[in-house]
Specification:
The structure is a single chain. This protein has eight helices and 18 strands. With 298 residues, the protein is an alpha+beta fold. The protein has two domains: 5-85 and 104-154, Heme iron utilization protein-like fold, CATH 3.40.1570; 176-293, Heme iron utilization protein-like fold (3-Layer(aba) Sandwich). The strands form two sheets. The protein has a nine-stranded antiparallel β-sheet. The protein has a nine-stranded antiparallel β-sheet with strand order 4-5-6-12-11-18-17-16-10. Helix 7 runs antiparallel to helix 8.
Length: 298
């Protein structure tokens, strides 16, 4: 039997510090259902159309952009500006670089929570099934005065607390279309397989030798990119992390089962189900790092 919004709120009150994604998974609900349960309190339903959300975000100034999949999270601090509408709209306003796929932008919520350290505010977008597509988190340096009018302008009539998941639109998958594992295995795509641990070694070497890198992290509805140097690379449990000012990347080492290098120097890491986890590439000096990895089969 599905949980009621009240039951979800009661359960959340007992575990307020657990990450929302982990809490929803443990409860057997979607993360969007967790958000919806708080509508009328700390949450407001807003328009999910990127043509409405993205241009409005410029008024906030500095915020944190977060895009993730089950195995990798990319967080960048910057401003949402220079929005380019279209079938696959973009923001290219470094350090914020996004590509969006609107069919997956089906539900959106604005959160405004009071905490001992002050308001905790975010905008969270989900697909039809309730999976997170993209999130925007406000920071101390954000223009707080722009928040209330922004949410008022995006607020929609439906302010219900229930959430009914629906099948996601699998005909559009901007992330999965980047690289198909089946084609790599069959030799249809010119590439070679790298040894286990190659992504971690490339990250450490890029940081040590100051080689600029690019990470692309995404899901079917959004791809976020980082381009530039990385400095602080640390392991913590199954995660390898980049923890730099304005940039955080969190990658599950144990989820990467196959790693392939393409002729253009890009490196794709795949999970056990054949899903793309992260794409990594680099600038001057990257070819030397990649050559050191060789092309040995694991």
């Amino acid at each position: 039997m599905a949980m009621t919004p009240e039951q979800i709120r009661t359960a959340r009150a007992k575990k307020p510090r657990v990450y929302a994604r982990d809490f929803a998974e443990d409860l057997g609900i979607s993360e969007a259902a967790l958000c919806a349960a708080f509508v009328g309190g700390t949450a407001t339903r807003i328009a999910a159309d990127p043509d409405r959300i993205m241009p409005a975000l410029a008024a906030l100034g500095q915020v944190m952009a977060l895009t993730r999949n089950d195995s990798c999270v990319l967080e960048k601090v910057g401003c949402y500006a220079r929005y380019q509408p279209g079938d696959a709209p973009r923001i290219i306003n470094p350090p914020i670089e996004l590509q969006m796929f609107p069919p997956h932008w089906q539900h959106a919520f604005a959160f405004d929570e009071a905490t001992p350290k002050g308001p905790k505010r975010s905008i969270q977008i989900f697909d039809a099934a309730g999976e997170a597509v993209h999130k925007i988190h406000l920071r101390d340096e954000t223009n707080a005065e722009a928040w209330a009018p922004l949410i008022t302008s995006l607020r929609i009539e439906d302010q219900s607390q229930g959430f009914e998941p629906a099948p996601a639109d699998h005909s559009v998958d901007g992330w999965g279309d980047l690289s198909r594992l089946a084609d790599l295995r069959l030799g249809k795509t010119p590439a070679h397989r790298l040894t286990k641990g190659s992504v971690e070694r490339l990250m450490y070497q890029a940081a040590e030798r100051a080689v600029p890198v690019q990470f692309a992290v995404g899901n079917p509805g959004c791809i976020e990119r980082h381009s530039g140097l990385i400095v602080r690379v640390l392991e913590a449990g199954p995660w390898i992390n980049v923890l730099d000012p304005g940039l955080e990347l969190h990658l599950r080492m144990d989820h990467m089962t196959e790693v392939w290098a393409h002729p253009d120097g890009s490196v794709d890491a795949f999970g056990a189900q054949g899903q793309l986890i992260v794409r990594m590439s680099g600038a001057e000096g990257w070819a030397d790092l990649l050559a050191a990895e060789g092309d040995l089969q694991p």
